[in-house]
Amino acid sequence: MKALVGLIRAIEAGLRVAAALCLAGMFALVVMQVVLRYTGGGVPVFTEEAARYAMVWMAFLATAVAVREGSHIRIDLLPVALHFIARPLGRLLEALLDIIALGVFLVLVWQGLDMVQFAAAQRSEGLRISMAYPYAIVPFAFGAATLFAVARLILRDRLT
Q: What's the number of domains the chain is made of?
């Protein structure tokens, strides 16, 4: 179990670094656009598109990290209230919510793979790359979210 916890933490750290790099890249591209616009130089066509892809990748990577931390979007009023009244019921409801989230993540991985396959034949306007690359973040991030949701179910108290 210790090795699994270590692996989960390493994957989370890698996702955090990747998201930070996306943020830094997006920031650099946007600053470059602004400077080039106001200094009279021409703005390269690819910069806006690359910044947009970096923002999307950053958001999806951060979503996976949020699942690992248990801070993804969900209403936890009832589980928290049940923890005060009957702790086992609160834990059961939390596990049920994690199972539902896991099902959603699996559907998103499956649909994301379909999106990547569909987009593979298309090219982006600015970067002239296959659209499969920008869309690849969907199955990747939700695959990581699936892994983190399973880890939350199995290692409930050991991940903190």
A: 1
